[in-house]
Amino acid sequence: MDYQKLDNDSISKQPKEGNNSNIKILSNIRKSTKEGSQDKIKLLIRGLGDKNGLARRSYAEELGNIGKAALPALINALLNSKNVIKRRAAAKTLKLVGDSNAIPHLIKALTCDSDPVVQCSAAGAIAIFGEDAVNHLIIVLKNQNYTEMQHGLAAWALAFIGANAPIAIKKAAKSKNTKVKSAAISALEEYIRNSQDKEAIMLVKNAVNDNTESVQIEAIKLIGKLDKIESLIPILIAKFSHKNPEIRKASIFSLMQHNIKDAEEQLKNLLKIEQEQSVKKIIELALKNI
E strands along the chain, which residues? Predict the structure, then answer.
């Protein structure tokens, strides 16, 4: 699922009618209320429920400029408003305010709100807080009571944080929890690409042979996204004989992404014995591209 697309409450699709009147309203709010006053904040919070996307963005930016003083009202709107548009906008506005005290409340919205866009907007806001947010996201991933979408959003946020919290991500990649470990391995992509950190590369290498197949698959996919790492190529070729067709497919696809000519003979041999049609198609595609 494209969580970034879901979070993007596109203003281009919003009606532009009444936009001038909304600008006038915002101008009057600025003139008639003191900067940072609760009256002004209250009026701006009300504006987050506006049906016009451009107007909502203007109100959100004004609240973002006010900053921490707007935090209690935004949290209240996020968690208690009956207007789903306002809850979505409140989550995005908390990202503009940028105060990490909002993290627990954003986590609550991610895990408790019934609207998937609110959940996604909350995850997008959580992700900007970097290392401060990592442990909160790990708690979500560990909780089996949350939905697959909520786990996916937490993993997406962790991947977004990635290189901004390498110590915390590397620690999470050693977790005994499968979902945490899988998400953390995937989140190492940017950090490894930028740093070629040997410890991080070793974590991926070990994850390729993890006891849990879902962790193996994430590590194999990650290898395909990274610059060619010679020590990992033989491990991928060895996966051609794995009993799980998803692992075979992931290994072949990663090798294809790197255009590994050394695997051509093994791919031809695998094609002769492979029974799974979906795997055969990827082998044929790989042979055409190598």
Answer: none
Nearest to 81 by CA among 45, 116, 38: 45
CATH of domain 228-290: 1.25.10
Has residue 38 got a pLDDT over 60?
yes
**Are residues 77 and 48 in contact, defined by beta-carbon separation less than 8 angstroms?**
yes
Residue ranges covered by each domain of the chain: 1-129, 137-210, 228-290
- Sign of the dihedral through C-alpha 11, 15, 21, 25: negative
CATH superfamily of 1-129: Leucine-rich Repeat Variant (1.25.10.10)
Q: Say whether 194 sits in a helix, a strand or coil.
A: helix
Q: How far is CA 113 from CA 19, 96, 109, in A?
A: 30, 20, 5
CA separation for the pair 282, 102 (Å, rounded) = 45
pTM of the model: 0.84
